[in-house]
From TrEMBL:
<dbReference type="InterPro" id="IPR004474">
    <property type="entry name" value="LytR_CpsA_psr"/>
</dbReference>
<dbReference type="InterPro" id="IPR050922">
    <property type="entry name" value="LytR/CpsA/Psr_CW_biosynth"/>
</dbReference>
<dbReference type="Pfam" id="PF03816">
    <property type="entry name" value="LytR_cpsA_psr"/>
</dbReference>
<feature type="transmembrane region" description="Helical">
    <location>
        <begin position="29"/>
        <end position="53"/>
    </location>
</feature>
<comment type="similarity">
    <text>Belongs to the LytR/CpsA/Psr (LCP) family.</text>
</comment>
<protein>
    <submittedName>
        <fullName>LCP family protein</fullName>
    </submittedName>
</protein>
<keyword id="KW-0812">Transmembrane</keyword>
<keyword id="KW-1133">Transmembrane helix</keyword>
<feature type="region of interest" description="Disordered">
    <location>
        <begin position="358"/>
        <end position="392"/>
    </location>
</feature>
<keyword id="KW-0472">Membrane</keyword>
<feature type="compositionally biased region" description="Low complexity">
    <location>
        <begin position="365"/>
        <end position="392"/>
    </location>
</feature>
<feature type="domain" description="Cell envelope-related transcriptional attenuator">
    <location>
        <begin position="111"/>
        <end position="267"/>
    </location>
</feature>
Length: 419
């Protein structure tokens, strides 16, 4: 694999480096917190008090960033579901200026968690793709919309360097270049955002096969299911050395367990009908999330929420971007291009797919949930019903081999790593 073709033209802090303390990646804000929670939140709390909504909207707008590159993004309908599909990028940074050196010192802000949500045009399916922070890829030229500074393209560098080359807008451009998707909506959060969002929802249930104690992240949980929030939620999502094989890919599996559990929590009546929790989510989001300007209007967030709220949990698929180790890049991963191409061909064509058996990510085990019924993957006509003879037959979606992940409906538990 080739080295860098060109370095950034200007980099005030020098080459991007991890600092003195090894710190696992920041936690990407739960995609559902934005696509479902945040938007539904703002709809629900709009009846609480007009001044409160105005205050939240002001906070969001003051911190917004333009990712459009000058293109005009069509406004969504007022209080109506989004027309067609959409793509939303959510990143987690590990060096927010407000966090200080609590989690270690680093020389630059890195986009250590990168999660893409794609909702199909018919609003029946959604795919959530997690990109490894150490995925070595080409980086396009980027211009920072806030400073006007331009950075040259690079042939091969880890994904988590994109933020240092132009912030949220550059990460968005880099993921667009990698996937071939147009991404019109984006958001960034840091450690504080994860803590506050988890607290606002009242905690998220997570499951461990065995007890895990990891002094690096601060994770200390027993076997079985625990409802976590605050610093413990952050520790679960940051934890790397205590789960699976100790790799970043294993951590992604834990994050997907958390995301799917959060999705189920947000779908529950206790959350979506609790005005206090809903307003708390909106307030936490406004104070701790940087949104693209395309997401700053209440209409935009409401529209995305109304689009997502009825997607069945079985049809929300969390996957890892296909990647594998490479001898030329010790400790990093490179794309499995053929599998990645097959995955994004499905996404671009809005075609649903399923995962193969035993395809859960490294460090994650599926457990049975007695309250969940397994859906019938096929629909056929009833020969006893003469009126149904012309009804169409729906086949099960294609299985994508080599893609790991789980659905939002699946219950999974994290496996401990003992080195």
């Amino acid at each position: 694999m080739s080295e860098i073709d060109a370095r950034p033209r200007r980099h005030a802090s020098g080459p991007v480096r991890h600092g003195r303390l090894h710190t696992p990646s920041a936690v990407g804000l739960v995609v559902k917190s934005l696509a479902v929670a945040l938007a539904v939140v703002l709809v629900s709390v709009s009846g609480v008090a007009a001044y409160a909504i105005t205050n939240l909207a002001q906070q969001v707008n003051e911190n917004a960033v333009d990712i459009s590159g000058g293109e005009v993004i069509a406004a969504p309908p007022v209080l109506g579901a989004f027309e067609g599909g959409f793509n939303l990028l959510v990143i987690g940074t590990d060096n927010d200026p407000n966090q200080g050196d609590t989690y270690g010192e680093r020389d630059a802000t890195l986009n250590d968690v990168n999660i893409l949500l794609h909702v199909s045009a018919d609003h029946k399916n959604a795919v959530v793709v997690s990109f490894p922070r150490d995925l070595v890829i080409a980086h396009p030229e980027c211009t920072d919309p806030q400073t006007g500074e331009t950075y040259d393209a690079m042939s091969a560098q880890p994904l988590n360097e994109a933020f240092s080359r132009g912030g949220l807008a550059c990460v968005n451009t880099t993921i667009e270049s990698l996937t071939g998707l147009d991404i019109n909506y984006a958001a960034a959060t840091s450690f504080n955002g994860v803590i506050e969002m988890t607290n606002a929802v009242g905690g998220v249930p997570v499951c461990l096969v065995e007890p895990i104690f990891d002094s690096d992240s601060g994770l200390d949980l027993p076997a079985g299911t625990s409802v976590i929030q605050g610093q413990m939620a952050l520790a679960f999502l940051r934890n790397r050395h205590g789960v699976g094989d100790g790799s970043d890919l294993a951590r992604i599996a834990s994050q997907q367990q958390y995301l799917s559990s959060m999705a189920r929590t947000l779908k529950s009546a206790d959350t979506l009908t609790d005005i206090t929790k809903l307003y708390g989510l909106a307030s936490a989001a406004a104070q701790n999330i940087q949104l693209s300007t395309s997401l700053t209007s209440l209409d935009s967030m409401v529209s995305l929420a109304l689009t997502m709220k009825d997607v069945d949990l079985n049809n929300i698929v969390f996957v890892q971007y296909p990647a594998q180790g490479d001898a030329d890049w010790p400790g990093k991963v490179v794309p499995v291009q053929s599998t990645a191409d097959a995955l994004f061909a499905k996404i671009l064509a809005d075609q649903p797919f399923t995962l193969a058996e035993d395809s859960t990510g490294t460090g994650s085990t599926v457990v049975a949930d007695p309250t969940t019924e397994t859906p019938d993957p096929t629909t056929t006509t009833d020969p006893a019903d003469p009126t149904a003879t012309d009804a169409p037959v729906t086949s099960a979606p294609e299985v994508l081999e080599g893609v790991t992940g789980q659905t939002a409906a699946e219950q999974t538990c994290a496996n401990a790593f003992w080195g």
